[in-house]
Amino acid sequence: MKDIKCKNYNIHINNWLQFTSFVQDINASHIFILADENTEKYCLLHLLENLNGEAFVIRIPSGEHNKTINTCQQVWSKLMQNGADRHSLLINLGGGVIGDLGGFCAATYMRGIRFIQVPTTLLSQVDASVGGKLGVDLLGFKNMVGIIQDPAAVFIFTEFLNTLPQNQIRSGFAELLKHGLIADKSAWDTLSHKANISGLDYENLVYESVKIKKNVTEQDPYENGLRKILNFGHTIGHAVESYWMDSSTPLLHGEAIAIGMVSEAFLSYRVGKISEGELFDIRNALIRIYGHHPKYVRPATDLIEIMKGDKKNIKGSIRFALLESVGKACYDVQVDKNAIEESFVFYKEKI
């Protein structure tokens, strides 16, 4: 069991007793749980056993394509129809979609009710549940509508990772690697050389990775500066993920971010930030873990067009979070279209 103290809330890892006690102390008028078909099947019973079964379950379909205002309307309607008032509590049990959408619904219903994040995927445990970013997608662009609002608490249970297929673990592992690249060289050096990412001490890995993100977000909660480094790999990665989302071969978030990190490592080299040796070490490690998928970095013109809608842009120019070195990042770096296209060519090259 581990705990991380944040400015406005705490993150608890593998502490069911604390979860039960915390919910009881809130003394909510009504308790609601937001779940999808996966968390209902694999995780919900554990939660209900620690709530004495006293909760109303709201079910939504899983998947990024359901992270929309339309789904929010369904959740708000369920809350309203079942007597939710301003003293109610919403527990978001699931991955990043459940956490982002459920938190947004809670923060806006009746201008705000309390919510608890219980992330069940590795990706959501190390990323989506920390820092208060909430929201939904719009017109195919990720997280275009949302707010920043802290939860009442975050409860992480790494036992839920045992319910996940290997590709979901690998997807979340990308954020562990990213945190190492932007802020902890020793973490990158250790994680990037893992021959097998199954069976690792995820309680400690999640704890260390969450601390990195927590330290960044507390210094810059509204993403005016330093917090932008957390977007390394995400400008290109989000474009790739969005473009292929409705195809017959969509990518998981972490898989797309791995492509983004290789491409943006090239941009870091291209603008003189990292050495050629660092660039190839990053590329080789990420492709060893995630495979080489050159088809996903085309068509370049369409991907760049998606990037033009990125929230980090300033006056129409595409801005990147890039690496100063392994373990240190910078932000608001302007890169031209030709360099972006070169980064795609670099990714597509055979090792």
Provide a descriptive summary of the structure in words:
With 351 residues, this protein is of the alpha/beta class. It has two domains: 2-163, Rossmann fold (3-Layer(aba) Sandwich); 166-200 and 221-348, Dehydroquinate synthase-like, alpha domain. Helices cover 46% and strands 17% of the residues. The protein is built from 14 helices and eleven strands. Helix 6 (122-128) packs parallel to helix 7, helix 10 (234-244) packs across helix 11 and helix 11 crosses helix 14. The chain is globular, with a radius of gyration of 20 Å.
TL;DR?
The chain has 351 residues and is of the alpha/beta class. The protein has 14 helices and 11 strands.
What structural keywords apply?
Dehydroquinate synthase-like, alpha domain, Rossmann fold, globular, two-stranded antiparallel ribbon, single chain, about 350 residues, 7-stranded mixed β-sheet, about 45% helix, about 15% strand, 14 helices, alpha/beta
Tell me the CATH topology of the largest domain: Dehydroquinate synthase-like, alpha domain
Q: Sheet with the most strands? A: 7 strands, mixed
Shape, please? globular
Tell me the fraction of residues in β-strands, as a range: 15-25%
Low-pLDDT runs of 5+ residues are: none
Mean pLDDT: 95
CATH superfamily of the largest domain: Dehydroquinate synthase-like - alpha domain
Distance between the termini: 42 Å
Helix percent band: 40-55%
**Domain module count:** 2
The CATH architecture classification of the largest domain is Up-down Bundle
Order of helices and strands: EEHEHHEHEHEHEEEHHHHHHHEEH
What is the count of helical runs?
Answer: 14
Q: What is the CATH first-level class name of the largest domain? A: Mainly Alpha
Overall radius of gyration:
20 Å
| Structural class category | alpha/beta
